[in-house]
Amino acid sequence: MTDNAAVFAELTGREGAIADAELDEFWAALPTVTVDEMIGQWQGGAFETGHPLSRLLTKANWFGKTMISAFEVEPIVCVDADGNRFSNEELSKGGASLWMEEFRGEVTATMVYDGQAIHDHFKRVDTTTVMGIMNGKAGLYEGRYGYFYLRKI
Q1: Residue 77 CA to its chain's centroid (Å)
Q2: Which long-range CB contacts under 8 A does 126-130 form with residues at least 24 apart?
Q3: pTM for this structure?
Q4: Counting CB atoms within 10 angstroms of each CB, which of 47, 54, 62, 137 has the fewest?
Q5: Where do the structural domains in the chain lie, given as residue ranges?
Q6: 1 band by pLDDT with thresholds 50, 70 and 90
Q7: Mean pLDDT rounded to a whole number for the chain
Q8: How many CB atoms lie within 10 A of CB 132?
Q9: 44 and 50 in contact (C-beta within 8 Å)?
C-alpha cells in the first residue's frame, strides 16, 4: 500500500471529525489528475469535517458522480427508495463539465457545475480513488471547502 493510500484509509476509517487543515495537508501531497482520468462512474463519500455538505449529501442519499465525457457530467448521482441511481438535477441545478483548472498553484481536473458557482477539484489517491475539494464563491457553505472522495466503479 502506498503512503497516500495508507493515509487515505486512516482518514476514511476515523471516528469523529477531521480538521480541514489535516485534509489540506493530505491534498497537498497528492498528484494531480487529467480530465481523461476522471471519465467513468464513481461512488463517493464525504470526509467528516462538520461541513454542511456532508449533511446535505447524506439527506439526498448521494451515491457519487457519472462523468460520461468532458462535456457530459452528472455531478450529483443519488439513490432512490428502490435503490435506483438517478442524476439529481434539482440539487445540482443541471449538469457539469470537466476542465483543467488551477487550484492552489496546481493545474488539475476540475468539475464545473453548469447551474451554480461550484468547482470540484480532484487529485489522485491511487489508480481508482480521487480526493475532491468543493470550492465555490465566497460565503458558499459558510466560507469553507467541502472535502470528499470518489472511487471508480
Answers
A1: 12
A2: 126/2, 126/4, 126/5, 126/8, 128/152, 129/5, 129/8, 130/33, 130/38, 130/42
A3: 0.94
A4: 137
A5: 3-152
A6: low
A7: 93
A8: 25
A9: no
